[in-house]
Amino acid sequence: MSVDPPSVLYDSHGRPLEYVRLAVTDRCNLRCFYCMPEEGITYVPRQELLSYEEMERVVSVLAGLGVRKVRLTGGEPFVRRGLLPFIERLGQIPGIHDISLTTNGVLTAPHVPELVRLGVRSVNLSLDTLDRARFLRITRRDELPQVLDTFYALLDAGIRVKLNAVVMDGQNIEDLVPLAELTRELPVSVRFIEEMPFNGGSHAAMLPWNHVRIRQHLEQHFGPLLPVPTAPGATATDYAVTGHAGHIGIIAAYSRTFCGTCNRIRITAEGGLKTCLYDQGVLDVRALLRGGATDEELRTALTQAFRYRAANGFEAEQRRPVHQLSFESMSTIGG
């Protein structure tokens, strides 16, 4: 899309910051119980969300600091109007050469041809089960056929697909093997994610299905999972299964085994900077933008925030104020 910036910014732990996850909205058309309560969450008033123009400006400044990849998240990105023209403008920012997105797939299928035209090469598709009744129970919406339409439309269009499944005790354990079986014939990465406490409330101190148990469960069916190389900063540990066209991935999102190579930051829909998923937000970017900050002042503030980045998710969690020990909804954080 554009030439690379001349340099890369490193945090105080020597990790490059090359990747921003940008939430374009906190709204979602599903009500997954591991993400939010059944009644939903109190959405941010629309005027408090970053405008597309404000997001473009932030990404432009970040590109000048070495960010090369943008992943658009939500909420659900496709519930916000004007998403595709926004993607096109992002692709014109010097230094940004990789734009991808995370979606639940309910509204995505009709837009796949345009995603191809815009150069979107990778989509993460949230899919926790292939069973329609369990999908309804988990998401509180009967939308599995639409999600599967998106899945096959993306594959047919040649877009790289990663299926993201949150592993939930007593909810979708019987789905792990059927989901992984998709890799037998299809060139897809099916990634199993440890459940996290970002459900808009409190959470147990430890979850019963960690990355070790997930791998052991899969190996009981498929035999040895063979580790394969992953890109720098990857959150998933990827595995090959002999004879399969795709890969299986496991993301230790709660165990936080990948923090030492993390190269990403997050901008929430209301303009909060998170240098770790588990922190409480370290900079109010919206206040700077609407307070008249110049690009140089914005660049300085971002650089300063990066210098105090936590070493890992456990340290970031320990820094949270006592009144923030109940975690936010993932919908407000950004996928």
TrEMBL record:
SMART domains: Elp3
Domain Radical SAM core: 12-225
Cofactor(s) listed in the protein's UniProt record: [4Fe-4S] cluster
Xref: Pfam families: Mob_synth_C, Radical_SAM
Catalytic activity: GTP + AH2 + S-adenosyl-L-methionine = (8S)-3',8-cyclo-7,8-dihydroguanosine 5'-triphosphate + 5'-deoxyadenosine + L-methionine + A + H(+)
EC numbers on record: 4.1.99.22
Top-rank taxon, per record: Bacteria
CDD domains linked to this entry: Radical_SAM, Twitch_MoaA
TM helices/strands, residue ranges: none
Keywords from the UniProt entry: 4Fe-4S, GTP-binding, Iron, Iron-sulfur, Lyase, Metal-binding, Molybdenum cofactor biosynthesis, Nucleotide-binding, S-adenosyl-L-methionine
Protein name (record): GTP 3',8-cyclase
Taxonomic path: Bacteria, Pseudomonadati, Bacteroidota, Cytophagia, Cytophagales
